[in-house]
Amino acid sequence: MFKNVGHVDWDTLLFFYGAMMIIGAIGFIGYLDGIAHFLFGQISPTVANILIGLSSAFVDNGTLMFAVLNMHPDISTGQWLLLTLTLGVGGSLLAIGSAPGVGMLGHIKGYYTFTCHLRWMPVILLGYFASILVHFWLNARYFQ
To answer: DSSP string covering 74-100, please?
Structure first.
């Protein structure tokens, strides 16, 4: 086990540690409660989850999920499933929103670029909204 831990990429671990610390600080000063009140109180949870998913194209989806978990929203199982779906697919809209996208850009330098990924963004966006519609169709019983 110690050999495996010794080969961990510390830059990645420190990035996620820093991101979690920022979410903790935002929660500590009360901004997370304000955001939660707006997202899950003033607008519908469905719209909130779709917006959070779209924002995961710019911000790491793991960090956003950690933030939502710290908001403790009172939402149905269907909404939790929708949030998970939108965070996963939304992070792929831009290559910088997901760890695999960033990894791919780093490993295939010159062949697959950010601009190359942008060419696929309309198709990914179409898939994003299509996956939401399919989710509502297949999991309607969880939105009760």
So the answer is: ---HHHHHHHHHHHHHHTTSSGGGSHH
Q: Which two tokens stand for residue 68?
A: 């939502």
Per-residue pLDDT of the chain in tens (144 residues, 90 and over written 9):
777 777 777 777 788 889 899 999 999 999 999 999 999 999 999 999 999 999 998 888 888 999 999 999 999 999 999 999 999 888 888 877 666 666 666 777 777 777 877 888 899 899 999 999 999 999 989 886
Q: 136 phi and psi, to 5 degrees?
A: -65, -35
Decide if 128 contacts 53 (C-beta within 8 A): yes
Nearest 5°: phi and psi at 18? -65, -40
Q: Residues 94, 58: contact at Cβ < 8 Å?
A: yes
